[in-house]
């Protein structure tokens, strides 16, 4: 009888320890890389791994628009996602989570663009329609963007960085973004 009670007590203590260990680790705030003083941490929720910064800040990078394909050789015009692959210089301006849960370098920043922004970026509505219904699944364009809102959160058990674009402009400097590997997979 005593041995059974001792086993139950041991099991109870192990479970209790694991719960407290997880809770203390989950609420531990993230530590960020050095970043531009133009960004200010305005909101943090360590329990949900979410952090939001306000700018404004301007960076350069490669805009990558992934389109849904109506067929293997024809894009439907529907956008799956839009991301910016920041240059190395731009990454140094941004807060990457370097310690804590879900650490990750900033490989991509997910954004949203309105129809008028896409039309303007790609030299008019007609040109954007031609590109978004063409044969390519990915549309790439070097850009300079200014955003006022930058966030680090967790999606699908992976660190994700997002921004709200204030302005975006195409640039022609081919040295803007060196693209070594582009992972376009989802969750």
From TrEMBL:
Protein name as it appears in the record: Uncharacterized protein
Source superkingdom: Bacteria
Organism: Pseudoalteromonas rhizosphaerae
